[in-house]
Records
---
Amino acid sequence: LKDIRKGAEVLVRDSGGKSLRFTVTDKETVSKKAFPTERVYGATKGSTLRLVTCDGAFDAQGHPVDNLIVYAELS
């Protein structure tokens, strides 16, 4: 996900086999301590997709300290 760019397409197949195409609108790396809960999980206009994974450095216990978040909208 770190290499995905704004405008990229993400194809998702639902449980019925239908393919849904989303277009990346934004991407950010944020500290887990400052996770943008409302932006990621809050209400949106239309169908959206949020991809969240670990990113960045690791703390003393070996856990990642950041999240990479990709935002996309149904095309």
Note: The mean pLDDT is 96.
---
Amino acid sequence: MKSLLAFILIFQINICYPQILPGARQTALSNADIANGSNLFNIEVNPAGLNGISGTELGVFYSPSPFGMKELSTGYAVFSYGFENLRLSLGYSNYGFELYKENTLYFSAGKNLFNNFSAGISLSLTNISIKNYGNTNVFRINCGTIYSVRNDFNIAFSIQNLTNSKVKNDSQPLPVIYNFGLAYSPVKDISLNLAAEKEVRFNTSLHFGIEFIPIEFIALRTGIANEPDTFSGGAGIFYSRFNFSYAFKNHNELGITHQIELIYKITEQ
């Protein structure tokens, strides 16, 4: 019965879009951080944020039972390597269960175009497998920018599904999503994040998140969003070259989702 409910839920959400966006840090901030990058898991919403990463990193993300349903489990793995003024990332995600599965490969690139302006692009190829109905592939392009007005204030803009792609035999293309974000740090250890997400057929969704670092190896995070109404929170622990984060998101109708991520910095530069 749970498998059937999960199958129905999948088709109430956009097929071929990440049902659970990657990144425990992002989730804890209610995905309000598109202007406050420097994280491996920006490959989906704003790849321009990859430019804030230093050195070589490898990260994994896992959400075992979104909304209490293990059939919706989601996993990501991302590797990122930086050149002098260019960053390349490779990613893989797996979502679903025996009736419906999505496997996605990502190739992302980010570049600092000017001292205070960066841009990024993410190419993804998703294989969709539906039991008794076969397989199909969908190619998408996401892109984004981040502009640093000052050291403590960033503005960002990104587009998901720039290609207006659609699933084979589906008359309607996948939605194009526009994201706009602001990030402001009033003091060194506090970051305020605001984002607006607009899909053409739906109301604008607003996201707000706060990150507070009380001591150098711990980060506390919380956020809220509407359309749909959600509340989220979590924490990060930094130790040596490891960065561990936990997040939860509470959906008013679907319940709580738990997530974890682990990032390892292979090289510093």
Note: Residues 2-267 form a domain with the Porin fold (CATH 2.40.160.60).
